[in-house]
Amino acid sequence: MSNINRRDFIKVSGGLLIGLTTGGLSLRARAKEKVDMDNPTVKALKYVHESPKDDQNCANCMHIGGEAGQEWRPCALFQNKLVRSEGWCTAWVKKPG
What we know:
By secondary structure, the protein is α+β, with helices and mostly antiparallel strands. It has a single domain (6-84), classed as High-Potential Iron-Sulfur Protein, Chain A. It has helices at 6-22, 24-30, 40-44, and strands at 33-34, 72-75, 78-84. It has a 3-stranded mixed sheet. A hairpin with a 2-residue loop joins strand 2 (72-75) and strand 3. Specific class of high-redox-potential 4Fe-4S ferredoxins. Functions in anaerobic electron transport in most purple and in some other photosynthetic bacteria and in at least one genus (Paracoccus) of halophilic, denitrifying bacteria. Keywords: 4Fe-4S, Electron transport, Iron, Iron-sulfur, Metal-binding, Transport. GO terms for molecular function: 4 iron, 4 sulfur cluster binding; electron transfer activity; metal ion binding. Belongs to the high-potential iron-sulfur protein (HiPIP) family. Residues 29-97 form the High potential iron-sulfur proteins family profile domain.
């Protein structure tokens, strides 16, 4: 388990709170651009376009929105941005079901 400093924790927590309260429909309507790899939230969550874990990727994470099978989909953690379905970040949580 990696250590996270207070500043990164606040960034991640703020991003999670904003992202989770946005709602799936509005995420689909707003998300049009791919995430910027220089974004502080992207860096804090260590997002990558190619998952380093065989069984974990954005497509099977509970934070993903949009239609299954699309290469780029909206994510509740990165407000108004698209992530790659094959991507991954440290906030990955298995999608229920």
